[in-house]
């Protein structure tokens, strides 16, 4: 051929960035950031830096794979469902059972499937060695990120800089701290005076301290002597001492 034109393919910055992010090593690092961010966010609930970090890492993980035609939308949905199931297991459903195990399986499946070129549930064109390699990348990233997050989180919250974010102090009884329920229940049988009119709710004063109270029957005049007969729903139940209610 005498008449031909040679055109050199040039990759844009976006092409280079996508090629960089879809490499297994970089994908593993992004998985570690996703898991670490979610872990720290669960330790300190609320929309903060760990959650933002996890969302950015997830976007950098799934977006290039989606643009390359590897990740499908349903695989991303599986990952999101897995995270939701794990959160529900930790905060809503007592114990650790079906929801937690299903959540872990969905998270791993979503991450692995997003890195291989399957078409739906057809894996005939995907070498088994590639599937095993991608599964190993995900499992290693998870195995590293969780212990590192736990150890790092413990050190951060024990440090002077971040120690104020967590409440580590113990309330000792010899320092004046008491359990409110026990303290209120101990008042049963004690006598005091009505600090306000109880119609039927009001205030009573016992040994110089005021408490929320409700009259057992009728109403109690201010200044009348009362006796505590029960403790219900955060209030003392009192009755007027005979002859002291006006």
Count every beta strand, where a strand is a DSSP E run of 2 or more residues. 5
Structural class: alpha+beta
Q: N- to C-terminal separation?
A: 120 Å
Order of helices and strands: HHHHHHHEEEEE
The order of strands across the largest sheet is 1-2-3-5-4
List the helices and strands and how they pair.
Elements: H1 13-21, H2 24-43, H3 49-67, H4 73-91, H5 98-113, H6 128-158, H7 180-185, E1 191-194, E2 201-206, E3 209-215, E4 225-232, E5 235-240
Helix pairs in contact: 1-3, 2-3, 2-6, 4-5, 5-6
Explain the overall architecture.
This protein folds into 2 domains: 13-165, no CATH class; 175-240, Beta Barrel (OB fold (Dihydrolipoamide Acetyltransferase, E2P)). It has 246 residues and is an alpha+beta fold. It has helices spanning 13-21, 24-43, 49-67, 73-91, 98-113, 128-158, 180-185, and strands at residues 191-194, 201-206, 209-215, 225-232, 235-240. Mean pLDDT is 82; it is low at 163-169. Helices cover 49% and strands 13% of the residues. Strands 1-2-3-5-4 form a 5-stranded mixed barrel. Helix 4 runs antiparallel to helix 5 (98-113). The chain contains 7 helices and 5 strands, in the order αααααααβββββ.
């Amino acid at each position: 051929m005498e008449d031909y034109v040679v055109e050199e393919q040039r990759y844009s910055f976006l092409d280079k960035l996508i090629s960089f992010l879809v490499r297994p090593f970089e994908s593993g690092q992004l998985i570690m950031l996703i898991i670490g961010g979610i872990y720290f966010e669960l330790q300190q609930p609320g929309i903060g830096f760990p959650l933002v970090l996890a969302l950015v890492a997830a976007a950098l993980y799934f977006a290039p794979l989606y643009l390359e035609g590897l990740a499908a939308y349903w695989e991303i949905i599986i990952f999101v469902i897995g995270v939701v199931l794990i959160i529900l297991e930790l905060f809503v459903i007592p114990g650790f059972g079906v929801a937690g195990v299903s959540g872990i399986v969905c998270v791993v499946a979503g991450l692995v499937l997003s890195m291989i070129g399957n078409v739906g549930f057809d894996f005939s064109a995907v070498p088994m060695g590639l599937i095993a390699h991608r599964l190993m990348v995900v499992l290693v990233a998870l195995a590293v990120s969780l212990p590192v997050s736990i150890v790092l989180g413990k050190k951060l919250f024990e440090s002077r800089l971040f120690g104020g974010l967590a409440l580590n102090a113990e309330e000792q009884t010899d320092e004046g701290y008491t359990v409110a329920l026990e303290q209120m229940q101990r008042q049963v049988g004690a006598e005091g005076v009505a600090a306000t009119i109880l119609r039927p709710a009001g205030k009573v004063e016992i040994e110089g301290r005021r408490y929320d109270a409700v009259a057992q029957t009728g109403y109690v005049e201010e200044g009348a002597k009362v006796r505590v007969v029960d403790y219900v729903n955060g209030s003392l139940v009192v009755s007027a001492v005979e002859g002291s209610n006006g």
